[in-house]
Every structure is written in structure tokens, then in C-alpha cells.
């Protein structure tokens, strides 16, 4: 067998001379038109003469912009004319450019209702009948907010520009006919040959041509692309890897076909075609994803040379990147609605009053205090009084500033919580959403479990080994691989005998225990994609699947160690130091569709060819020879929470393998249904009557504290769904062991539902079990999503627990959207993204969600109250002072308040249920605060009139001082748990107000303020405005206390 077999690739493409279309998709056409092809290959026109007779369509002759996303044929040493047809390799993550910055930023700001209201009110001040106060008091705050926002957006986009510039200017070596050139990443074009060194970022989508490893393999890190930290092995194009030197790449006459750019990072269809001078027929080698290096991955080993096939916007990384949308929380939507309602009244008044402005001479004019001299009229016209309600501008502005600052504080508290170290808050706009979650959707592997695998059980029909009996396996292997000459002879004879009788296994003959153990351990040590990597003197195993690593580690512990692996060979070392060498002939990687992986190897010492395969029991049951124990044992292991893999083998003669190789090559080079034809060949020759060797049970350990966390969340009223790709038995066991499902809770299972009638019957049966947990497989789930979407989700969202098994990523996303759209509730999704991240300690995060929501709601209502109460009084610049330095610190200190402490919140998670109802901020509470504001504002105004003396400045001093003290008292009354900063803010604010009186003689007469008259009048007004509310609160706490007060 030649080396090219081991360095195999799949799906080669036929001679490009035969067709102009090179894809199973009908609308895909090559980007290279006929003229370019002839121009680029003039030196080989004689060998490609058949092209002259071809008549390309207009679509292939005229390349338009929409064809930039079609399949392409890229010749080596392509001309600039061809390279210029493809997008430039420029990384651009900026949201704006010079022309779009201001229009987009302003649109985003005034798209928000409050900001638009700010603008309209400010513009209204240019209309004389509506003008109140100084224009600067309206445009000043608005311009400040917009300036801050523009500055922030500009700074963030400037940082993106700096990062883009750094990426685009990174230097790379390009291999050309004239040698090696150093060019920035932005100047790399399709058709270039890029030299990549270890730990260097891949600048574009490449086909791997050569590596410094003789086998043609290299490893890449893909965590920045798919979130997976495991290294991935990539294979060089066999023809290129066999060249004598790198420089030969610049001399060969070849081209690469690549299918159309797409988002899918796990699939690629292409082919490499070499056109030797001595032959008319090109040498074609198929390419797949194993031959690619996607942009933004990192080369983890050696040095590689790649051929650029996609650049810029055509790369997988860019196509999978989307600009994040601005997240707006439910609380913000609620406040936005309340803000609109608070503006309806003055707008209606404007509309009603405007036609009758001249008819209000007789209307009783309400008194409104203004900073005017006593000689001026103390009354204003009714239209102006209506327009004075525009001070809601100040209220809403203050509301937005306070909320934004409060959310920032909440985010800071989350990141600095010692109970959840290293937590990163990536958006500070929605921390309160954690207090409104009703549905929690969690992955299983790596989220509820650690993704730390360990082989716990091995079953071989009549024998079963667990953790306590693994030493027996080591003893049998030690005997099987003993170096004694006579035993070696026996072992070889036994091996041949085993091979001969492999096809008849399951019949009358029974092999001894030692040979059976040897066979299954050898199968486990060979059938995988694990590669040993040595770094800093330590050997680690790299693979895309952690359960494969767990199995290889187990074979090492029992006495069969993987010491070498490349694309051509596997070397194993026995416990006695003997090296067993195997050549790799074919590999069939594991996919979600096949649910199995296989390998064909040849033992070098005997020349025997063996096909090993392992996979899920649902597919392996149909492949292995008949047995009466497989289904039962797989079910038993799954109920123990173990991931099962069925292991089997088949001996292949030279004739059988040669026939398979020939037919498989024909299938790979087929233009129609290549995958189906490949599968047909494998299943008809290899996957028939496999000898069943045994079943492994691998444990995926639960995350620390996951049981108590899930129990807490369930008690808090959250409905938890587990979405996993595992089988029903394993997922059910994990759901029970993690206490997601109570042990005594009935579990209703829906599986293998393929008809709509049966699907409806299951829904009818489930209606009678409202308190049960639902376990459903992906096949059945798809039937409901296709035919009974509404009926299914209407029933499922009412169940306490739903476990969806065998789910595809698409199904997981669809379920999430379905719950959000149907329930209109907050959904939290937790997953590891393949990174093996520890379980999010959701219980402590919920504690922060409670605080964030309660604090934000209270802060919003207090700011609204502060704005409404000041609506009664028009005091010029004092309004600005009231909303800022005089009350801002005490009101803002409410973000430090907590109704219950951490211990009580964690001990009684039922308190969380109250938050999901949204009662902390609603129309009811809003109107309660409106009534409080009207009463207090009216009390202060009326009492100030009653106690009015001969000086207008005195009434301003009395009323405004009463207003400040009233607000400080209201803050104190609303505090549940005092924080030192709260006390400081109250005292400091009062001191600042007293000192400011000295510097505001227009509003405050010091000679009057220092008299007893001023003091007793302020005391009386303050008592009348605040004491009744204090009494109401005491009565309410006495006869209808909140739930949390009963727990203190």
C-alpha cells in the first residue's frame, strides 16, 4: 500500500476539462471564466485543448458581484487579474466609517423614546409660547448625554480600528517563484502560498499543502473559531507533501477547486489537480475539511505552507461573525412604557389648550412659584403652566443617568463577588434580567457534567469489569503480551486463529478470557483519533473528543500505551516494552450522522488487515453479529449514567480489502451523491457481520455543586430544560443523579415518534400528567416542531422539567426561540460551548439578579417620584440642583440596599418567584408613586401658601428646604438595610444644601433662615408631607407584611 493511501482525502473532483460546473449545487459556477483559464495556462494549452471547444455560459464569462460567493477553480501562480476578482483580505470589525458615524450614532440615540423626547422638548423652547426658563437648561443635559455617547462609541470604534489595523498589518511570508516575500495580512490574496509558523494566526482560509512533519500532519487550535480547546489534526495534500522541497511548490502546474464560501466550518468540498507534462490526464486528489486551515485558528505545531482559497468576507470566520445587537432589558421596556404614559398628560393638555389660548383670561390661574421679584406677578397664564410640565425633561434625564449608573454598580458587584471569582460581565445594560429568568436551558456535557471522562466499566457478554476489577485486565494483558519465545509463538498462532474464526464468533466456539481481553483492549488502543504530543518533557493526548482520550488513558493504565501516531502509522507499547506497529490504511471519522468511527489497519509483523469500529449502540446493533446481551447491558450502563460505546472488528483478506479500496475510490471520485455512495461501499463490505468485542462505559463526572444548584433553582421557581445530544438512557440518568428530576417524579418518555397520529396521541397522554418530567428524543421533537409546534410548546412550558435528547444544535436554537416567542418570558441558556468551562454557579448569580432587579426598580420609581414632586414648583436653576447635588447621592445609594441578606436568599430560594411576576415595577406601583408625589407636592405647596409671609424669597426658602428634607426622609423610609455609604450620602447632602444657601442669595435670605420661624415652618410642612406615609407604611408592615420580612 502506498503512502498516498494513508494520506487520504475524500471526494476528489474529476478533470476540470470535462465540465464548467464543479458542484452538486446547480447554481454554482467557477469564478474563473474561459478566457482567464486559457490565459493562465497558455504554457499547457496543448494538453488542455478540449477547453477551446467548450462554450461557457454568459454567467461564467461575465463575473458579477453575486458570483463572488460561488465555487471557484484557483490555479497555482494565478495572475493579478484572477486574484483581483476576490474580496481583499482586510479584517474590519468597525461599526462605522467617516460618513456613517454621526448619522448612525444619532439615529441609535434618538431611536430611544426618552432621547427623542429630550430633543423635542429642547426644540420646543424656540417657540415663544412654550418657552420656560433658559434654553441652555434643556440643551445642556441633552448635549451632554449625546456627547458622552458619541465619545464612547467613537472610543470603542477606535479600539476596533486599532485591533483591525494590528491584524491587517501583521506580516506573513509568501512563497513565490522569486523566493519568499514578506507582506502584511491585508495584502494576502487568493492563490498565494502562505508560510505559517508555530503559534501564528492563520490569516485567511487555506488549503494545507506541506508541513515540516514527514507525515504531512499538523495541529491547530480552533478555540477562537468554534470555542473548542482541543487541538485538531490537519493533513497536507499528499502530492505536495511528497515534493522534494518547498520551492518545488512554485514550479508545479496545478490548481485547486473549492466549493462556494459558506458558514459551515466542519465541511469543505474541493480537489487538488496536478497537470504533469507527460500526461494529458491530471492527477486528482480529493480535499475535505481535514486539509484546511480556517482563518483565526492558530498553528500549534511545526511550520506549514497553505494555499489561499478564501479571503476577507468569504472566510468562514467572517461569515460566522455578526455585530452584536444592543441588548435592552425587560425593565428598560417597562420604564419606557411608563415614561410614555407620563408624557401623555402634558401632550394632551398642549393639544387641548392650544386652540383656546385667547379664551383663558377668565380661567382661575394656579399659583406657581418662579424666581421673580415681588413686584412681578406671581401668576402665569394657563398655557404657560401647562407648558411648565416640560420639566419632565429633567425627570427623564435624571432617570436615565441614574439607571445607567446603577446598572454599572450592579455589574461591578457581580465581578467582584468572591463567591463567583473570575466572573466577567460582558454587558452592563441588563444585570437586572438575572432576576427575571423563568426558563433555564442547559447543556449536559461540560455544563452539568465536567467533560472529564473516565472509563468505569468494560463488558464483554459473559464477563464484566468495573473500577475494582481493572487489575485483572492488566494481569491478562501482561500474560497475553509476555515476551517468552514459546508464548510469542502461541500468541501469534492464537492471533491467526482468532482472525480466522472472527466471522464465526457468536457460534459454538469460545475463546479464552486472555485472548478476548487482548482483542478488545487492542481495538480500543487502535480505533481512535488520538495523537500523543510531547511538550516540555510531558506527553499529553490530543483529540477532538474527550471520551476518546479517556479510553486511551485507560489502555495505558492497563498496559497498552499509545507512543506514536501520525496519518500513516500507530505504535503501541506493551507493559514489557515491546513495540507493536500498525499501518493506517483508512480512517472513517466520527460524525453526528454516522454516530460511529472506524479504522482499517495492517499489523506490520503479520501483514493482517483488520477493520475496527466503535459507536453508539443504536447504530452498532444493526452492524454486529446477533447477540442476546448488547441492548440490555447498554441500557444498564446508561441508567448508571455512563456513556456507552460498542466495539467490534472484522478481519479483511487482501482480496477483500483490494476490492473495497477500488470501489471506495470510485465512490469518492463520483460526481453524484458522493457521501451516499461512500457509505454504501463501507456498509456493504466492511460493516457486515462484525465480531462484537464488548461495550465500554465512560463516566462524565458531574460538576461540583451541580445538585444543590439545580435544586435551588427549581425551588426558586425556574423551569429547567436539559438539551443534549446524548441518548435517552444516559440523559435520564444524569437528570436523576443531578437532581434535575426527583427520584419519585414520574418520567414520561417520548421516543421514536415518526407519525403525526402517534405524536398527537403522546400529547393527549401527557395532558393527564401535568407534574411529570418529559424526556423526548430528537427524532420525535422534530415531528412536533414540524407539525404540532404550538400544541407541543403550550404543553411543554407548563411541565417542571423537560429533557431533550439526541438534539442537534439547530434544534436547540429552535427550542430557545420557540420558548421566548411563545411565553414572552426571560430565557437563560447555559452551555460550555465546547470549552469544558465549569458549571456556572447560577445560584449566586440569581442572588445578584434579585438585587439588581429590586434596586433598579426602586431607583427608577424614586427618580420618577423626585421628578413628579418637583413638577409642582418651578424654581429656575434650583430644579437642576434638586435633581443633582441635592438628592442624587441619597437616591443613588439605593443601589446598595437589599431587602434580604445573602444567607436568607440562598436558604429560601422561593423568594425568587416574586421577582418573575414583575411586581416591583408595574403600572400599579407607578401610580402609587404618582399619588405619593401628588400628595407630597400638594402638601408642600399648599402649606407654603398658608404660611406665606410678605417676602417671596421666604416662601421659596421654606418650600424648597421642606422639599429637600422630605426627599431625604423618603429615602430613609425606603431603605431596608443601611449601608455606611447611605448614611454618609444623607448627611453630606444635607450639609451641601445648607452651605449652598450662603452662595444663593437670590433664593435664600440668610437673615430669615437663621430665625426660629423658618425652622418651625419647615418642620411643620415636612411633617405633614411625610408623616402620613410613614404611618401607612407601619400599618402595612403590621397587617400585610412582605414575605421577606417574615424571614428576618
From TrEMBL:
Comp. bias regions, Polar residues: 54-64
- First-level EC class: translocase
> Biological process GO terms, please?
endocytosis; phospholipid translocation; retrograde vesicle-mediated transport, Golgi to endoplasmic reticulum
The segment(s) forming the P-type ATPase C-terminal domain are: 846-1041
- Which parts of the sequence bind Mg(2+)? 443, 445, 832, 836
Coiled coil segments of this chain: none
Q: Which residues cross the membrane?
A: 98-120, 132-150, 926-946, 952-973, 980-1002, 1014-1032
- The domain of life is Eukaryota
Which cofactor does this sequence's record say it needs?
Mg(2+)
Q: Which InterPro entries match?
A: ATPase_P-typ_cyto_dom_N, ATPase_P-typ_P_site, ATPase_P-typ_TM_dom_sf, ATPase_P-typ_transduc_dom_A_sf, ATPase_P-type_domA, HAD-like_sf, HAD_sf, P-type_ATPase_IV
Alphabetical UniProt keywords: ATP-binding, Lipid transport, Magnesium, Membrane, Metal-binding, Nucleotide-binding, Translocase, Transmembrane, Transmembrane helix, Transport
Subcellular location(s) of the protein = Endosome membrane; Membrane
Region Disordered: which residues?
Answer: 33-64
What do the Gene Ontology cellular component annotations say? Answer: endosome membrane; plasma membrane; trans-Golgi network
What EC numbers are recorded for this enzyme? 7.6.2.1
The record gives the membrane topology as:
Multi-pass membrane protein
Q: Which SUPFAM superfamilies match?
A: Calcium ATPase, transduction domain A, Calcium ATPase, transmembrane domain M, HAD-like, Metal cation-transporting ATPase, ATP-binding domain N
List the NCBIfam families.
Answer: ATPase-Plipid, ATPase_P-type
What is the name listed in the Swiss-Prot or TrEMBL entry for this protein?
Phospholipid-transporting ATPase
> What organism is recorded for this protein?
Ambispora leptoticha
Query: What lineage does UniProt assign to this protein's organism?
Result: Eukaryota, Fungi, Fungi incertae sedis, Mucoromycota, Glomeromycotina
